[in-house]
Write a structure and sequence with these properties.
With about 725 residues, the protein is α/β, with parallel strands linked by helices. It has 23 helices and 29 strands. The chain has two domains: about 325 residues, Glycosidases (TIM Barrel); about 280 residues, Rossmann fold (3-Layer(aba) Sandwich), CATH 3.40.50.720.
């Protein structure tokens, strides 16, 4: 078979503006005899309107799946194109150019595998059919990340065929790269000017001198995919002998040397976990990072001060450019976690691309990856726990909701820049509090520039206000935590003066009257602080165009519905406190429809001693009996989870009412019982009480269940707060 030789690549950087591309996490991976399909798991498989949402952002190039496993899963000559016909046709109508991916971390349909000598020819046959059916597509990625897939499938045993040795990895890599070359040949028969966009993760490995032999080995290995395709692995290459020893003969190796399949664009997929650090001092790291049978730990290089200054996307892009001098695109950039850090990561990648362009490198684009998020990638898809990381959109709900990343992407696509107050501080991967291992450097608080734009948080003396402040500090979000002396939220003059003084970019109202049993006796004060104050602050924020969040309660409901309440259910409070919160909701949304009202329930958390769970565990650990009601059903809410989710929704500029509670409904007795068992305490010391319950005021959500399960929250609470249940001050301080 004669492969089309690529034309000589220009070494001059493009003069076009840096582009923003998009990408959808589309892995179809086989684990043992089961397949996982991320397109199905994130729901994109059933939402063709997603494509309109992408186009509306201004994205005009999209990495999109035309995956072999989904078109011809049962037989190489039996294909079902209807799903792809509809979606690729819609992309064409929208003016969005696809980069067609044919295998994405997969091993092919069941009738082949990465170790099958027929895999390259079978994929090439499929690629040829794709080109014949969609001759207007000009860019292709026949196999995504061949080396990464070969490592995960042939060396680490995560994915099919679950190999665990270097020979299996190299045979899988050769098979994939040969499949790329043959596929491009087949494609170019129908589309002579088709381009190969070849993706790979080019993360580097670092270590102390003791492990230099291992880092040298892995850092040479990371080039194998592109070196193979570019025809560089001849008898003089340091890895040539390893391929021969793996059973790939000299004639097969000559295949690429004689007729290289040079990428038209090298695609670099870069993650915060791409760069690694190896350290033989295992005792300095958490046990979770100790691998059985390996005499060192392998962790994110960003977590170790010895690699400080050596990591980052600009460094890796520079290495790729200097080695190959081929056009480059960042083809995946994604970060899970807090929304502010997601924005900072995208910003860092964009700036790194501009830095390299300024040095003369031909960097074409940065890709906003995982547009609709991804599921269970924290375990490399090996655990089916539904762990979701959102992207430009969040799919946990009845609709696809744009996040702040969507706004950033739209701005980058249309203007080449974006700004947000959270960018005034660095991401966690730059901050001095990120390090895992013992460091001779002094660990200091996260750095925030002096001119950083600030949040204002009311309720400085309350549980929620203090928790929000703590979370903001952890996330390097500049803020002012205000007492009533700083701003009386029910006094218009006080509010006006405080907002003028602090000039916040957003306001979170965590102040209010919280003593539910006393509210009937102090109803005037309760309504002033909860309803009037929330309204006054909402009116001021509306007038100034400042995003605003305030909090409400499950007690706006009477508990008679017989199921967990969602946002659209009618309020029906039974007590004065609940009435004050229902009135606050009405007034706030009337005064400022763009405000966010968070309903929540039954706080427990690590930073105060005045919550139900803490009291139960304290008393049981001291040998005291505990009585708890079995009449009311609530949704316990872990305060750190609540604070994090509130901050994300605020940054996303979400409005209206949203229910935030950990997933799960139970009585106060059940809550006490589960907490006791999780903590290993004697649950027989618990007793049930009856009468006076409020029924089921548990909260669910039709907008999206974005807090983790109650089981997850309770496990974290107990693990992190074992010393907090005793009354002794020294134990509290510990």
């Amino acid at each position: 078979m004669i492969l089309k030789k690529p034309e000589k690549q220009s070494l001059q950087p493009t003069t076009k503006q840096l582009e923003l591309w998009g990408g959808i996490e589309c892995t179809v991976v086989r684990i043992q005899d089961s397949y996982r399909n991320q397109i199905a798991e994130t729901g994109h498989a059933d939402r063709i309107d997603d494509l309109d949402a992408i186009a509306a952002l201004g994205i005009r190039t999209l990495r999109y799946p035309v995956l072999w496993e989904t078109v011809a899963p049962d037989h190489p000559d039996t294909s079902d194109w209807h799903w792809h016909d509809a979606r690729l046709g819609r992309l064409r109508e929208l003016g969005v150019v696809p980069i067609a991916g044919l295998v994405h971390h997969g091993s092919g349909p069941r009738y082949t595998s990465l170790l099958d000598p027929a895999f390259p020819d079978l994929l090439a046959r499929y690629a040829g059919r794709v080109a014949q059916r969609y001759p207007w597509i000009k860019r292709f990625t026949p196999v995504n990340e061949p080396l990464t897939t070969a490592r995960f499938s042939g060396l680490y045993g995560h994915w099919y065929p679950h190999g665990r040795d270097t020979h299996t990895m190299l045979r899988a890599l050769y098979t994939e790269c040969r499949a790329v070359a043959l596929s491009m040949c087949a494609i170019r028969r129908s589309i002579p000017d088709a381009q190969l966009v070849q993706t790979e993760d080019m993360g580097k490995v670092f270590s102390l001198p003791d492990l230099k032999f291992q880092t040298d080995y892995e850092n040479e290995r990371r080039w194998l995919c592109f070196d193979l395709l570019c025809g560089r692995i001849d008898a003089s290459h340091s890895w040539y002998r390893a391929f021969i020893d793996a059973g790939i003969d000299a004639r097969q190796m000559d295949f690429f040397v004689e007729q290289p399949c040079v990428p038209d664009i090298i695609g670099i997929n870069h993650y915060v976990t791409s760069e690694r650090f190896l350290d033989h001092r295992k005792r300095d790291y958490p046990a979770a990072f100790h691998c059985e049978g390996v005499p060192y730990v392998d962790i994110h290089a960003t977590r170790v001060h010895y690699a400080d200054g050596l990591t980052g996307p600009a460094q890796r892009l520079r290495e790729v450019w200097e080695r190959y001098r081929l056009p480059i695109a960042v083809t995946e950039t994604h970060l899970g976690g807090a929304r502010d850090d997601q924005l900072r990561w995208l910003h860092d990648m964009w700036q790194a691309a501009h830095t390299l362009r300024g040095e003369g490198a031909d960097i074409r684009a940065v890709t906003a990856w995982s547009i609709f998020g991804c599921i269970d990638w924290n375990s490399l898809l090996t655990q089916n726990k539904g762990f979701y990381e959102s992207g430009l959109f969040d799919v946990r709900g009845g609709s696809v909701r744009p996040t702040a990343l969507a706004g950033a992407a739209a701005s980058l696509a249309k203007t080449g820049s974006f700004d947000h107050p959270v960018l005034d501080a660095p991401g966690w991967w730059h901050r001095p509090d990120r390090f895992f291992a013992h460091s001779p450097q002094r660990i200091v608080a996260p750095e925030i520039i002096k001119s950083a734009r600030k949040l204002a948080i009311t309720g400085a003396r309350g549980t929620l206000g203090r928790a929000l402040s703590r979370i903001c500090t952890q996330r390097a979000l500049a803020h002012e935590l205000l007492t009533r002396d700083d701003m009386d939220i029910a006094d218009e003059a006080s509010v006006e003066a405080a907002l003028k003084l602090h000039r916040p970019w957003a306001v979170i109202n965590a102040a209010g009257y919280v003593r539910v049993p006393d509210a009937a006796r102090e109803s005037e004060r309760c309504f002033r602080e909860n309803a009037a104050g929330a309204e006054v602050l909402a009116r001021a924020c509306a007038r100034l165009g400042i995003p605003y969040v305030t909090f409400s309660s499950d007690l706006v409901f009477d508990g008679s519905l017989g199921r967990a309440y969602v946002e659209s259910d009618l309020v029906s409070p039974l007590c004065v406190y609940g009435s004050s919160k229902a009135e606050a909701e009405r007034r706030v949304l009337q005064a400022f429809p763009d405000a966010l009202v968070v309903r929540t329930s039954a706080f427990f958390g690590p930073w105060d001693r005045y919550n139900f769970v803490h009291g139960v565990l304290r008393d049981l650990s001291a040998g005291r009996r505990v009585a708890a009601s079995d009449d009311s059903q609530v949704s316990p809410t872990y305060v750190p989870d609540l604070a994090h989710a509130t901050m994300d929704l605020l940054i996303d500029r979400v409005n209206g009412i949203w229910h935030l509670a950990n997933q799960g409904a139970m009585s106060w007795f059940e809550l006490a019982e589960r907490a006791a068992r999780q903590a290993g305490l004697d649950a027989s010391m618990l007793s049930k009480t009856h009468g006076g319950g409020r029924g089921m005021t548990a909260l669910s959500s039709e907008r999206g269940l974005i807090l983790p399960s109650f089981a997850s929250a309770l496990e974290r609470y107990v693990r992190e707060n074992l010393v907090a249940w005793n009354d002794k001050p020294e134990r509290e301080a510990a």
